[in-house]
Amino acid sequence: MHPIAFQLGDLAVRWYGVMAAIGFLAATGLVCWNRRIAKMSSDQATGVVMTAMIAGVIGARIFYVIQFFPSFRNDWLGMIRIDRGGLVFYGGFFLALIAIWGYCRLQRLELLRVFDIMTPALAIGHAAGRIGCFLNGCCYGKPTELAWGVLYPAGSAPAQQYPGQTLHPVQLYEAGLNILMFGALVCLVRRGKRGMATAGYLTLYGLMRFGDEFFRGDHRQFWNGFTPAQVIGLVLVPVGIGFLIYFWRHEKQSA
Question: Is the predicted pLDDT of residue 2 greater than 80, yes or no?
């Protein structure tokens, strides 16, 4: 864990921000690479990624502040300090969906195909973000005795909650799974039928997040022993499977 990447005078540049920037650049490049599938110009491809990113960060931070509001009760400025970490993915995901829908309406783009080409970009961007979480020391795991368990430095949030214990590097688990999902989604975008990449993302990410949450050590249980992310995952998986079957039966092959 090394939260600070480098110093520029009094300004500390954090790895969390560096990895977020890398994820954004990778996502932008992927959407530009696939933009012709959605009949988008290069400006529209860049615009939709910017729109999704801004809405995603806002939504993710809002959900995080709501979930951990007692920590911000006397720290109003801290609510906007995203450079310290603290984003809830599903909050960003749902607000980004709304923003992309609005952007497509304004630009008269085919919504489903835009969603399709956004899915591998989202997966690779999320992978970079999770590596940033690992370096930042947030979104940490539960104690483990496995050989790859991580011992966080004294004073960090994981060490305060689990002093002297090695923890699952769940951030790296999720980063690796996102990279694998990225490969599958690229194939669906290029070779699958219209809408299948979107449905595939809902299904695969719902399954991945549901399983990954069992190793998380920073979340509270929400319903019947499940975390909020697991409850959302339980909804996304059947929805994604239903869409996947529908698109496979009724849609045309990608051009």
Answer: no
